[in-house]
Amino acid sequence: MEKLVELEILGLSSNHSQSGSFTLVMGEVDGLRRLPIVIGMFEAQAIAIEIERIIPNRPMTHDLFKSFSDSFQFGIEKIVISEMKEGVFYAKIHSKSETALAEIDSRPSDAIAIAVRFGAGIFCSEKVLSEAGIEFSEEDKKEEAKKPSKSVASKNTAPKENLLKDFSLDKLNTLLDKAILDEDYEKAARIRDEINKRN
Q1: How many structural domains is the chain composed of?
Q2: 99: burial class by Cβ within 10 Å (0-12, 13-18, 19+)?
Q3: How far, in Å, CA of 104 to CA of 165, rounded?
Q4: How does pLDDT run across 145-175, given as a tens digit for each residue?
């Protein structure tokens, strides 16, 4: 059986080389390797809103998958980024019920969006991490720790956050409802953070 390495989500940022895409950076738990994966805007949003604990007014696709699995009483054990062919990553979702185990083929972005909803472990095969991972030194890790932490869903938000300080709590709650209704989850995360500062 192939060795698996546990990963954690370190960050999500817009990809400057491919318009409309994002780079999801996964880090080796208790290790120095990083695995950057380019994903689409929808999947990036699906991962970000779950990490930021924003509840959309209607279920998104990955939320629907979770509701479906809860209704039929099967869970997700883990997800595994299992292969890389010609620069494309492949993943498996390991699910189980009382009577069956199943491995479901998936894009890594969808598998990770599902894993964060289930609180399931995210793993990568050692072979894939060796081929596609980026090795950090201890110095790089220390430098990374010194940088101010950025919200997964935030991007150039400082001026907008300053404007939010001028609004009353009632107005912020109204703006939050509207942002969720408009499915503008980045804005919703900023508003929610401002509300939380005041509570």
Answers
A1: 2
A2: exposed
A3: 46
A4: 655 544 444 443 333 445 788 888 888 888 8
Please report the pLDDT score of residue 159 as a whole number: 37
- What's the predicted TM-score (pTM) here? 0.72
CATH number, domain of 96, equals 3.10.690.10
pLDDT value of residue 123: 98
Q: What are the tens digits of pLDDT across the range 107-133?
A: 999 999 999 999 999 999 999 999 998
156 φ/ψ sector (left φ>0, alpha ψ -120 to 50, else beta): left
Type of residue at 144: E
End-to-end CA distance of the chain: 50
Same domain (yes/no): 65, 127: yes
